Structures are given as C-alpha cells and as structure tokens.
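Usage example:
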Amino acid sequence: MPEEKDKKQEECLECEKKKKDARWRDDFPVKWDSDNYVTRREMVKFLALGSLTIAGANAVVAGLPHIVKASEMPKTRVALASFIPVGGSTLFSYPTEEDPCICVRQSNGDLVAYSQVCTHLSCAVIHKAEENALFCPCHHGYFSVDRGKPLAGPPTRPLPRIKLEQQGNEIFAVGVEV
Amino acid sequence: MSTRQAQGTTLFTALLVLVGIGVVVQLWLLATSVDALMRHQGGTAVHATIASVIVFTINGLLVLYVFNFDRKIKRDRN
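Running the assembly step on the lines above writes:
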C-alpha cells in the first residue's frame, strides 16, 4: 500500500510540474523552433556585414606595409670599394650576423648587394660572373644581378636588396629593400 | 501566396545566393592579399582591396534593393 501512495505522490508532482510549465508557456509564448530559425533576411544581413568586414580586413592588409614603418636599420661596413673588382663579389652580414649577404660589382662599375638567402628554400646564392647572375646551387635558381629578380629555376620572388652607401673608399649597408 | 509575394521569395533567394557568392569571392581576394603581403607585393594587395570594395558595393546595393522591395510589398499589403 505505501508503494501505491508513493506512486500517486510522484504522479501529482509531475502534474504540478506540467501545470507550472504550461503557465510559464502562457506567460512567455516562445516556441524554440521558431526562435532558432534563421530567416533569409537575417542571413542576407549577416552576409552583407560579413562582406563589409572582409572588405575592411582587405584594406587593412593592403595598408599594413604603409602603416608599419620599417624600423631603423643599422649602418654596417661592408668592404673597401677598391677591394671589389668589376665582376667580383664579397660576402658580408646585414642587418645581423645571422643574415648573410652578397655584394657584387657589375660590369658598369655599380655596386649592388642582396641577401644571400635564396627565396625558394633558403640556400645561399653565389655570384656567377660568367653568366652575370646570382646562382642558387641547391635547385639551380638564377637571379639577375642588376635587380635581383628570379630568371630561372624554382624561385618566384626577388632577393631582398641591401641599400648601400659609399663614403670615401668605404661601402656601408644602410637598409633592406623588400 | 500572391504572385507578387512568390516573385519576392524567388528574388530574395536568388539575391541571397548572389551575395553569398560575392562573400566567397571576397574571401578569396583576402587570401590573395595576405599571400601578396607575405611576398612583399603591395600592388597586388591594393588591387585585391579595390576588387573587394567593388564586390562589397554590389552586395550592399543588392541588399538595399531587396529591402526596398520588401518595404514596397508591405506598403502594398497595407
């Protein structure tokens, strides 16, 4: 008999719960299905906002190089100008000791310097005077001496150019052009 | 559903798809911009931005058109 009583009591509790639930539903007649339903209008608004955000992000990406100014580069001595003959080259490090660079005197007497790190897979490029090019022995990449542009092989990006300054007979590296 | 309303629904769905395609194109342009930035090719990023702004303008105009159409239908109903 006590078991039956317990059952009845449980049933009553459930009834009360349902009644409460129903009252709550009367007060706040929100159907979850329709509440979670995203209308086409909302979707279009969301897409338009997304479009604006992406356009803004694109503008930020395009403006980033202009916003972030290059930090001041050190001035490092490269070599004596008379030390590099026409068609010759010398190695140096710039801006840090871990950044190998190469300075080449072109056939017209002008000096140019580039990072020695190949833009393909970071091997060291060497100067090939007979071909008037910078050559990467790892994957046979070629770069032009006058501009550092890729001529042949797998590299697609030019070598970063090192800005040079001549003071008397001495050559100094003063910046990096990327 | 009246003919005008049915037309509106079709129009709305079509424009939703168009705007969606525009957003996908913009995402592709953004990816191109970031790639150009990493390659230090500022010109490409600028061009991608211009294209992205144009696509956004088209999207915006489409959305405005849709909401104007919507308002028109409501006005007609009233």
